[in-house]
Design goal:
Length: about 140
């Protein structure tokens, strides 16, 4: 595994964590959206991560060396199908005959925990890139006297 492979793997994770943070931000922004284009309340979104695939040659080489993985990528965004929250507010324009509103299935506390987790993952990968860069610079200094 070369120095640039580790940077490439960490860079793919940076991209995936940025997408995750964007989705979480969108969920937080729509926490009170009771009507979307389809007439339903906003549904919480979740990213789907997958290991990046590699060529047969790289897979075979990685198996021989005991290495795994080429990074991560986001393959899609899935709707959370958990039920909507019901809130009693008979004066709201979207209230049903009983005075209840269907609110989005977004839990602010969960979103904030997910945001902290994504932020920590992002920071960890920045640190990994900086460490790989530092190692490469030290390797170049070996030849100098």
């Amino acid at each position: 595994m070369g120095i640039f492979n580790s940077i490439d793997i960490s860079a793919s994770a940076l991209t995936a964590e940025r997408v995750r943070m964007d989705i979480i931000s969108n969920n937080i922004a729509n926490v009170n959206t009771t009507r979307t284009e389809n007439g339903q309340p906003y549904r919480r979104k979740m990213p789907i991560f997958q290991e990046r695939s590699s060529s047969f040659k790289n897979i075979l080489l990685n198996k021989q060396l005991g290495l795994q993985g080429k990074g991560v990528r986001v393959i899609g965004i899935k709707d959370d199908m958990s039920p909507f929250r019901l809130v009693y507010d008979p004066n709201h324009p979207d209230a049903d005959n009983n005075g209840y509103i269907s609110m989005p299935n977004v839990n602010i506390v969960k979103e904030m925990v997910d945001m902290i987790s994504a932020s920590r993952g992002y920071e960890a990968n920045v640190t990994a890139i900086n460490t790989a860069k530092s190692m490469a610079m030290k390797a170049l200094e070996i030849g100098r006297v």
